[in-house]
Fold this protein.
Amino acid sequence: YSGPDTGGISNFVPMISSVAVTAPEIKVVSSRLSLTPAPMTVNWFKYRSSDLNVKAATDDTRLAFVEKLDQANDGFIAGVVTLPVDGTWFLQVYLGGPAYDRSAPDSQMWPTESTGVPDPGDSIVMNFNGVQQIWTNNLVKQGKKTIYTQMVDGQELKYRFDFKSSNSLRRLHPFISNGQISLVQDKNSPPSASSQTGQFAGKCSNAVDGKIIKPGDKVSNGDPPNLMDILAGSSEVKLSLFLGSTLFAAVPVKDGSFSLNVPAGKYGVIATMPHFYAFFVQEFQILPGQTNNLNVILSPLLNPGVLRIVLRWGAVPKDLDSYLLAIPAQPKTPCQVNYKAKQCNSLGVSLDMDCTKGYGPETITLARLEAGIYRYRVNHFGWDNKGTVSQPLLDSEAQVTLYTSDYQRQYLVGLNGYVDKANWFVFAIDSQAREVAECTPLSCPKADAV
C-alpha cells in the first residue's frame, strides 16, 4: 500500500448503516441467537486492553488497518473480544513484511519498499486463546501474505501479539492484518424444521474471475502481477446452513458445486475458505418442492488499502452492470468504470468481472483511494421501459458487498440506496472525509446515469 506511514489505522466508518456484515460488539452472554451472527472483522487496536510501542494513526484516508511495531525494537498489543454467542468459531488473519526494491516508489511500504533492507529475523509472536505461533519475516515470506487460521472455542477471543525487530525504523517492520472470525456452530442441537423440503443448490466461485473454486486449482487473487497465485488447497469450501446461531446442516461441496435436499424455511448461510473472506447471507429462503439456487461468491483477502465491490443477484435479469464513477480532487480528471471501460489506470480502478448470464458476480477492485468522491450504482442492462422503474431489478434480490480491510458491508436492492428507472444508486465514498454513505438523490444524482 502507498501513502504516508502514519501508523496504519483507518477510522473509515459508514455514515448511514446498511445491512451490517461486521457484527457489533456484544457483551451479553447468549446461548442461542434468533438471527445468524455475521462474520466479524476484528480490529485488534479497537479491542486492545494493553499495548506498548504500537501506535494508531489518526489521519490515514486509506481503507486500511494493520498492526505493526512503531519506531522501536520491540512492543506488544493484547486484548479480548467478546463473541456474539458461545460456540466454535473460524479465525483467519494474515501477516506480511516488506521486500526491498530500490525502484519502489518512496511512498510505498508494501509489498516492496525502497527505504532499506528488512531484517529477515523480524518476528511476530501470535497467541490466540493460549495457542502460540511464531512468524518471521524471512526472505521467502517478504512481500507476500502469510495466512493463519485457527478454530476458537467459547465466547471470548483472547489475543496477544509480540513484535521484535533489530532496527527501529517503522517502514521496515512487518504487520498483522485485521482478523475475521466466523461462526461454525453454537452449543445447541438443531431445532425441529418443516417436513416439506426443497433443493438447495449452487456453485462456489471467485469474485475476481468468476471461476469455480475447486481443490488443487489455482485461482485469481486480484492482485497483479501474480494473478493466479492462490492454491485453493486440498479441501472444498466449507458451507453451512444455520437456524439462528445453531448449525442446521453442513452442506457437502464437490468440485465447487453443491446440492442438498433440506426442510423448507429461512436459513442463515456462511461459507469459509482460507485466503478468502467469509460469504454470508443472513436469511435465504428455501421454498418447498423446487430448486433454490444460490451463487456462493467469495472474495480473496485484500491487501492493505485495497477495496472491492461485489454484486450478485438471482437468475433474472440476465444482465446487471456495475458502474463506479470516480471524481478525484484536482488536477486529475474523473473517470467511470463499467463494461465499456474496464480500466481507470490513473486511479487504480478496474472492472474484474462482467457477468451477462445472471447470478453474478460483477466485481470492481480499487487498488487505492485517491482524495475525492466515488459513486457506485447498478444498471439493468437493456431495460426498455425507460420511463418506469425496473421491476425485474427490484425483484432480482441483488446484493452488493463492499469489502475493505476494516469491514464488509452489504447493501440490498429496495432496502438501501434508491432505485430510479433502470438504475440502483447504492453508495458513495468520500475518501477525504473517510465516510461511506448510502446514496440519496442529493449525494448520487440521477444525472450520473445519463
In short: Helices lie at 391-394. The longest helix spans residues 391-394. The first strand starts at residue 19 and ends at 20. The CA atoms of residues 83 and 350 lie 36 Å apart.
